[in-house]
Each structure stands twice: as structure tokens, then as C-alpha cells.
Amino acid sequence: MGGALAFWMGNPLLNPATLVFMGFVLGWEFTLIRLAAGLVTVLVVATLVQKWVKETAQQPSPMELEPAQPQGSFLSRWLNALWSLFWNTIPVYILAVLVLGAARVWLFPHADGVVSNTLFWVVAMAIAGCLFVIPTAAEIPIVQTMMLAGMGTAPALALLITLPAVSVPSLIMLRKAFPAKALWLTGSLVALCGAVVGSIALL
What's the domain count of the chain? Predict the structure, then answer.
């Protein structure tokens, strides 16, 4: 579980292309902070979830020990698996994105001098960053735009950690792969790490 979580979070947080892009757009100081804080976040969250959530090893039944004979052609089995994956993930994903999209006006207020360098906004942005799903590296133009509109550096750093790491849709989609406790802990710990990084910038 720890290795899977580390891969899942490390992929967007420590992506080399994203870090280089961030250096050119936001500055290399942001890149170095993201690299260091992202590495600590991935290691701490994956280690703590691995430690606090007990994995239940499933014992195969005697029937499962015998190799199953594939039914149908490769193409038909592949299409059946794809259809099952589609109905298990896409509707939930679309619903979560629509609900969060409707709420984004309240969750991400216009930053015209409102999102200042205060602990309240650091915590608020750390939590809000864990809610939305974004494409790879999309956190960079989002943060850049909000900073140009007046958002402080500390809330921006919190967003740079939490926005790419997890989202509610991704947590929902992984509900069958990880225990519910592991997903809740992952989201909470990522938000905490984002809040800590932003709080350090307040000092």
C-alpha cells in the first residue's frame, strides 16, 4: 500500500517536466520548495498510511488456486473489462467533478486582495486544493493567475502541494483499490502537509 500511494502522489508532485515548467513560470524558488516539500509529503503520507492502516491479506480459495480458463477471445475479454472499468469509475468521476465545479465559486474566491498571507487562508487553500481534479501541471497557471490577482505566497505554496497530489474524484475512484481509512488518511495528511508548508512561509 505504501509503495502504491507513493507512486500515485509522487507522479504529479515530483514530475520533472512540471518542475521545470514551474521554474520558468513561477520562479526556481517555487520549484525548489515544491521539490523538497513534495518529496517529504510523499514519503511522510505513504509511510504513515502504511503504518496506521492494516492490510488484510486475502487467502485464495481452493477454486482460485486452479488457473481459470479464459472465456472468449482476447478482444471480447478486453472489451468486457473496459466496460466494467467504465461503469465503476466514470459516472462517479463525472458526478464529483460537476458537484465540485458548481461549488468552486465559493471554494476558490476571487483573489482580489482577499486571499492574503494569513493562517486562515493557508488552511483554507490547503483543504480546497485537495478537492479538485486538475490536469498535470495545471496548478501552475492556476496559482500564477491567483497570485497576479493578489493571493499571498503562503496560500499559493499550500495550493502547489495539495492541488496536484489528491482530489475527491481520485479518492472516490480508488475506493475499491484501497481501504476507506487509507483514503481518508491520505487526503487529510496531504491537506495537513500543504498547510504546514504554507505556514512555514508565514514565518
Answer: 1
